[in-house]
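Hi support team,

I submitted a single chain yesterday and got back a structure, but I'm not sure I'm reading the token output correctly. Could someone confirm the output below corresponds to the sequence I sent? I've pasted both exactly as they appear in my results page.

Thanks,
R.
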Amino acid sequence: MKTTALPRVDIRRRRKPFILDARWAPPVTTGGTRWPNERIVETSPCRRAACTIVGATGGTVKITLLSEDSIRLEPIPGQMTIEAPTAEQSFSAFHMLASGLAYCTFSVMYAWAESAGLDAGDLTLEVSWTFAQDPQRVGRYDIRFHWPSLPPRRLDAARRVATMCTIHATFLQPPVIAIDGTTGPLVATAIPDRASA
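Hi R., thanks for writing in. Yes, this is the structure output for that exact sequence:
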């Protein structure tokens, strides 16, 4: 199957990367051992900050559109890429939504791996979704990760970490969405300075 690259986006220019430290990774309480009784405690301010990654990948990933209702995310060096199996397949709003969920999940898992001394360079995620009706919406997401170098004893901990991303929490407790509109000529408005507020 021929893969056609869609326009590249350099995410490193869009957000400031952070240095991985204990503030960004879920703390691990071990009780004197790193396993088998590992317990993940979520107190990270990453829930309030943008999820970004640095390190071996340079903070970039490749999103591959597997179908109309599934995507794969994998770390790559260089610029972020979005690829589709054919030039005719479009990157839909549903692909964007799933890509955000995948990227946020990957970022949290990558940060945890760095703090735990694990190699996340071979971690990939696939996200698929199904629709529900009345109203029409995404009714279910399935996230599967493949991490060949992860020690089997760490698999349960990795699953728990995967649930700690901000977008995952947003779906579990949906935000209020306010919609407004105007008519007539567009009038430029100043963006409030949040620092002085």
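A quick pointer for reading it: The helical segments are 93-116, 155-162, 166-172. Let us know if anything else looks off.

Best,
Support desk
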